[in-house]
């Protein structure tokens, strides 16, 4: 049952009735809930009489039961029970049965002819369709046809009304009465006195549900300081709950009536209640209504806790409405957030102590009204106090229970406990990552080899030298064997992720040491302390944008974002998803240890997070960062050559991730992001950024225009963001007001310390900016610069990835003016208003085009540096756009890492070595291949040689010698790839392109319109508006392009015939490694064949053309699509799954052509001549 009082079960399932639960049996039948009036005037229900006289004798009849409990009892397939169901308008009997892990509820119907269950007949057709005199006859007939059904007997706590005898009434509530009664258990010789709580006959369904819920909570609890529960009589009406009879009355009346009660006795009552609440908390029950009126006193003066009407089962409950809750006993977090947990009961216990010490003279916080008391609890540090003169120990307990602690106090208290546990349970010891100690026998052998070396050097004898060589070889062989076994053991024990992390420290070592630098006075700094303080002062001087005004939230501010709340489970999952880290932060506890104790602290962290949000307070430890200076140049000499990377609190980063998980969907919901921004957003990346830009550039170059690009660099971008202007933008977005206040507290008055070696600098203050390295910083910076694209002229386009920005435009021949200069002027004014500085020394311009008219651009009367090649999001972009320099650098880097892998690792195990290859080598030559696809055959061979060289060296290591093509046991590259489970890099590049274009056509990427173009020698293929062409095919009843047709869209792989033709034309033949080598038959010069712009995406002569796309010669006057129809709306495809490529792939003819080149399928497929009909 949830907090709204509704059932989780499916009592109103379709199996009961097509019209709903309250439908009436037609054809003159009488509803099961109908009543008849006797001559005495008393209404009688025939169904109640049947239950009382016949049905309750069977153990598979459970009486009144709600769906959530029914689902728990039916644990096995074909287990069943019969129960009573109450809806808002009807009461009836039903059979509940679990079939194939689903519970079905079949309504039983009756009239003067007997009982029937129509829906049960539909589910089990072999069951005879007839009316039965008794329900057990239906069960017997069903069991004979289906012997596998299992009857679930009712629980022992379900009692019969015959065992209960009501005496005098003790009290009456809203929907129940309490009687003094006698209970005689089956087989017992004597009865006992009990308290019987009976539901009223006119009680509503929700009231009866709460009545039964209270009984289910009490059934879990069996303790001497909790009122005992004997059972519930729910087989027939009215429902009766039996509890322990406590004759001493409640604690409130006792304290008011007996003023002579000693303080010792009152403290004894408090101890009893504390023991009971401790037990209740151990059973995962939240009482929510602990007060003196709900504590009963026995004859021997022992306190017992009662009244579980508001109680809930679980570690935490969030209520949207607190109307029924006792306001004066509630904690601040419950009033603010609606959260109830174990700590809220602790608060209520403190309020209960104030009641007891004042002898319940008045209600807590009297004479305040409800609204004033509620505000006082939220704002006061200690809202509840006991009178002076009471025991000091009780005063301390009340303060501990009811102290309205600040977020700083709560966080400090938690972290002090965590640090204490860490110091006692973990021995802090520095251990090199992945290092394995060398065994003693190798150390002894090393000593022997070393002594043999020195002996041969002293004696100068040949036999001594040969002995040394023999020992050295044996030692090397044993050492290699030990190292390979240790590497494999580490991989198997720690897993691939941990092994890759360790391997990165070996293959890509990074030095954290800071070289000697010169300060502003020209003094050489050598000690870590001097360098740390010098760099910290340099960083502090970068924060120049101080707040111009104090932050104030408008009085009429109305946010549209829900309040950012987190739950225990959300915090726990966020902690577990984060990577392990032992970096030192302001927490002074490694994050690895925090992950170990996550189940213990997730509840406390959730409470601190929610308190921090609702109060707008941030602990000081969260606002303190340890800054690691990262060198911007190879040889840094001054403090300006470093950039700050902040290590913030681990716990703060957890909360930032929780906030980010709720902030990102909101920004997407309001469609905030500019289409030009690709940084840190779902479905966007550096590849989509470059793909859009390349599409615009190639379109302009096809028209014979030149493209001018300006790469904008911001000086200290993240560190210069002014807080007041950032908060104004968040307010304009209607971000939740609590989040705006929290972000203001998070950003202001931040401090940092620079770490050099093991030395920390003095504390420094940052008055502006967002900390680099924090979780929320990228999205906050994106929010701040998102409006940049709106100020540019329409002819100028912009592409952004966080702070990496480029603007560009296409210019016609002989143009002497450019709208880029106007864009630069507007951008300069925008930066002045945003208080961001442009780094003019790193802002460069690049021109693309065959005949380039170089225009001089200026920023604030200073010329922008012109370059012929520059780095753009990891790609080297040159003026001829051929990516040759990009691939040279990538290939050299891959060769370097390959050499390091074989030098550092001695293992022969393919699993280990292939893991290193896939993790560190292959990504270097596969990054962004959709953008920088290699067209040059030499580049393709060089890239493929990376994998061929690696597999050849690995295969040579396995057989014990280096192999050459002349060896008899030599296998070529394709066979080695098959042996090690690898695909060729060419095939992987094609697969990446297929997936990217399929995502675009299916709408899984935000970019849905591209003109994929290729200029290659004497042919160019133009793909215009892929989606519009596909939609046009759908509308004209032609074979659609995409996964729904079983045809892979825009197949990248050339057919075998076409490949042979290309090889013959180029005068190349295949080598044994699968690459291409020169043929002596080739006589023509390459330069005569190559056009200037051979930089396009790949050779696409063998690619199928969608409808509306054409292939025309470059020199043709009409180099346009044959049908330039306007874009059509995308049809509702209902998210079809990506189809598996068929064994034979067919081509789809284009209306504008007589025939189209066929799509080539997988290497094992064959080409079909006729198009297939889509399934």
From TrEMBL:
Domain SH2 residue range list: 60-144
Higher taxonomy: Eukaryota, Metazoa, Ecdysozoa, Nematoda, Chromadorea
List of residues binding ATP: 197
UniProt similarity note: Belongs to the protein kinase superfamily. Tyr protein kinase family.
This protein's name: Tyrosine-protein kinase
Gene3D superfamilies, per the entry: SH2 domain, Transferase(Phosphotransferase) domain 1
Keyword Protein biosynthesis recorded: no
Protein source organism: Caenorhabditis nigoni
InterPro entries attached to this UniProt entry: DNA/RNA_pol_sf, Kinase-like_dom_sf, Non-receptor_tyrosine_kinases, Prot_kinase_dom, Protein_kinase_ATP_BS, RT_dom, Ser-Thr/Tyr_kinase_cat_dom, SH2
Keyword Ribonucleoprotein among UniProt keywords: no
Record's signal peptide: none
Domain Reverse transcriptase: 611-859
Biased composition (Pro residues): 1124-1140
EC number: 2.7.10.2
Disordered: region residues: 1-47, 1036-1175
Recorded superkingdom: Eukaryota
Entry keyword set: ATP-binding, Kinase, Nucleotide-binding, SH2 domain, Transferase, Tyrosine-protein kinase
Reactions catalysed: L-tyrosyl-[protein] + ATP = O-phospho-L-tyrosyl-[protein] + ADP + H(+)
């Amino acid at each position: 049952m949830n907090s709204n009082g509704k059932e989780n079960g499916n009592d109103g399932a379709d199996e009961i009735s097509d019209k709903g639960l309250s439908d009436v049996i037609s054809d003159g039948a009488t509803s099961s809930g109908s009543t008849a009036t006797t001559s005495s005037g008393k209404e009688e229900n025939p169904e109640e009489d049947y239950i009382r006289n016949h049905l309750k004798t069977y153990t598979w009849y459970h009486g009144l039961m709600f769906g959530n409990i029914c689902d728990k009892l039916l644990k096995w397939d074909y287990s069943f029970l019969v129960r009573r169901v109450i809806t808002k308008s009807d009461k009836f009997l039903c059979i509940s049965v679990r079939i194939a892990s689903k519970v079905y509820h079949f309504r039983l119907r009756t009239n003067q002819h007997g009982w029937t269950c129509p829906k049960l007949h539909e589910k089990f057709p072999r069951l005879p369709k007839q009316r039965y005199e008794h329900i057990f006859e239906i069960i017997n007939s069903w069991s004979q046809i289906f012997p596998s059904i299992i009857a679930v007997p009712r629980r022992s706590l379900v009692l019969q009304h015959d065992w209960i005898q009501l005496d005098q009434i003790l009290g009456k509530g809203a929907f129940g009465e309490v009687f003094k009664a006698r209970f005689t258990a089956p087989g017992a010789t004597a009865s006992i006195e009990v308290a019987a709580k009976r539901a009223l006959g006119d009680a509503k369904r929700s009231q009866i549900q709460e009545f039964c819920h209270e009984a289910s909570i009490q059934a879990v609890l069996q303790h001497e300081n909790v009122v005992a529960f004997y059972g519930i009589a729910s087989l027939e009406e009215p429902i009766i709950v039996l509890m322990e009879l406590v004759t001493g009355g409640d604690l409130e009346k006792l304290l008011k009536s007996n003023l002579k009660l000693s303080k010792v006795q009152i403290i004894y009552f408090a101890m009893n209640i504390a023991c009971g609440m401790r037990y209740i908390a151990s059973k995962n029950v939240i009482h929510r209504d602990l007060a003196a009126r709900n504590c009963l006193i026995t004859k021997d003066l022992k306190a017992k806790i009662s009244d579980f009407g508001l109680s809930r089962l679980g570690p935490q409950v969030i209520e949207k409405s607190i109307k029924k809750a006792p306001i004066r006993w509630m904690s601040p977090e419950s009033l603010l957030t609606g959260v109830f947990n174990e700590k809220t009961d602790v608060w209520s216990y403190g309020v209960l102590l104030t009641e007891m010490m004042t002898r319940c003279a008045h209600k807590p916080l009297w004479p305040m009204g409800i609204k004033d008391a509620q505000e006082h609890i939220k704002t006061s540090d200690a809202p509840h106090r006991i009178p002076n003169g009471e025991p000091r120990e009780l005063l301390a307990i009340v303060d501990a229970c009811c102290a309205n602690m600040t977020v700083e106090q709560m966080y400090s208290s938690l972290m002090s406990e965590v640090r204490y546990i860490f110091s006692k349970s973990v021995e802090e010891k520095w251990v090199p990552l992945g290092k394995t100690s060398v065994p003693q026998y190798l150390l002894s052998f090393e000593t022997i080899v070393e002594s043999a070396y020195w002996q041969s050097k002293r004696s100068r004898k040949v036999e001594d030298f040969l002995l040394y060589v023999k020992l050295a070889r044996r030692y090397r062989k044993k050492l290699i064997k030990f190292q390979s076994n240790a590497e494999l053991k580490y991989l198997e024990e720690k897993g691939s992720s941990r092994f890759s992390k360790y391997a990165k420290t070996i293959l890509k070592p990074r030095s954290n040491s800071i070289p000697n630098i010169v300060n502003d006075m020209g003094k050489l700094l050598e000690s870590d302390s001097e360098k740390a303080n010098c760099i910290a002062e340099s960083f502090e001087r970068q924060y120049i944008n101080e707040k111009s005004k104090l932050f104030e939230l408008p009085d009429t501010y109305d946010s549209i974002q829900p309040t950012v709340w987190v739950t225990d489970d959300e915090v726990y999952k966020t902690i577990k998803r984060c990577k392990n880290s032992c970096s030192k932060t302001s927490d002074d506890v490694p994050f690895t240890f925090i992950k170990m104790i996550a189940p213990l602290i997730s509840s406390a962290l959730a409470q601190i997070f929610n308190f921090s949000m609702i109060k707008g307070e941030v602990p000081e430890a969260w606002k303190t960062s340890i800054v690691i200076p990262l060198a911007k140049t190879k040889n840094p000499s001054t403090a300006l050559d470093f950039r700050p990377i902040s290590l913030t609190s681990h716990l703060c980063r957890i909360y930032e991730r929780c906030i980010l998980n709720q902030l990102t969907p909101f920004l997407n919901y309001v469609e905030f992001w500019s289409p030009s921004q690709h940084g840190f957003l779902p479905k966007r990346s550096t590849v989509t950024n470059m793909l859009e830009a390349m599409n615009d550039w190639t379109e302009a170059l096809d028209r014979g225009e030149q493209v001018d690009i300006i790469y904008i660099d911001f000086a200290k971008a993240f560190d210069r963001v002014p807080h007041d202007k950032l908060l104004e933008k968040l307010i304009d977005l209607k971000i939740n007001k609590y989040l705006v206040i929290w972000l203001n507290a998070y950003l202001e008055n931040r401090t940092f310390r620079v770490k050099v070696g093991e030395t920390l600098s003095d504390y420094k203050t940052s008055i502006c900016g967002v900390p680099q390295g924090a979780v929320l910083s990228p999205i906050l910076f994106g929010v701040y610069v998102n409006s940049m694209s709106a100020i540019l002229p329409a002819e100028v386009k912009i592409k952004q990835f966080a702070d990496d920005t480029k603007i560009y435009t296409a210019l016609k021949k002989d143009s002497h003016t450019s709208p880029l200069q106007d864009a630069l002027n507007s951008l300069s004014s925008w930066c002045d208003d945003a208080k961001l500085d442009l780094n003019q020394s790193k802002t460069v311009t690049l021109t693309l085009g065959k005949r380039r008219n170089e225009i001089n651009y200026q920023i604030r009367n200073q010329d922008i540096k012109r370059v012929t090649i520059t780095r753009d999001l990891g790609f080297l972009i040159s003026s001829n756009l051929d990516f040759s320099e990009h691939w040279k650098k990538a290939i050299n880097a891959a060769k370097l890492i390959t050499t390091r892998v074989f030098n550092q690792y001695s293992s022969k195990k393919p699993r280990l070595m292939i893991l290193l290859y896939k993790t560190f080598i292959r990504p270097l030559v596969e990054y962004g291949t959709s953008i920088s696809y290699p067209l040059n055959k030499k580049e393709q061979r060089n890239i493929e040689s990376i994998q061929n060289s690696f597999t050849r060296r690995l295969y040579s290591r396995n057989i014990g010698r280096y192999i050459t093509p002349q060896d008899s046991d030599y296998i070529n590259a394709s066979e080695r790839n098959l042996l090690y489970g690898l695909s060729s890099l060419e095939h992987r590049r094609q697969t990446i392109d297929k997936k990217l274009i399929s995502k675009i056509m299916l709408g899984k990427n935000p970019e849905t319109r591209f003109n994929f173009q290729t200029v290659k020698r004497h042919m160019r293929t133009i793909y215009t508006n892929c989606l519009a062409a596909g939609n046009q095919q759908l509308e004209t009843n032609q074979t659609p392009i995409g996964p729904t047709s079983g045809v892979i869209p825009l197949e990248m792989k050339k057919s075998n015939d076409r490949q042979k033709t290309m090889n013959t034309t180029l005068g190349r033949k295949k080598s044994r490694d699968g690459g291409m080598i020169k043929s002596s038959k080739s006589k023509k010069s390459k330069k005569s064949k190559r056009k200037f712009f051979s930089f396009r995406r790949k050779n696409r002569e063998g690619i199928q053309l969608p409808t509306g796309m054409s292939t025309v010669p470059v020199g043709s006057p009409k180099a346009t699509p044959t049908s330039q129809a306007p874009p059509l709306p995308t049809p509702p495809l209902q998210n079809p799954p990506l189809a598996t490529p068929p064994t034979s792939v067919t081509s789809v003819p284009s209306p504008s052509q007589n025939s189209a080149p066929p799509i080539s399928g997988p290497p094992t497929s064959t080409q079909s001549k006729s198009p297939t009909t889509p399934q």
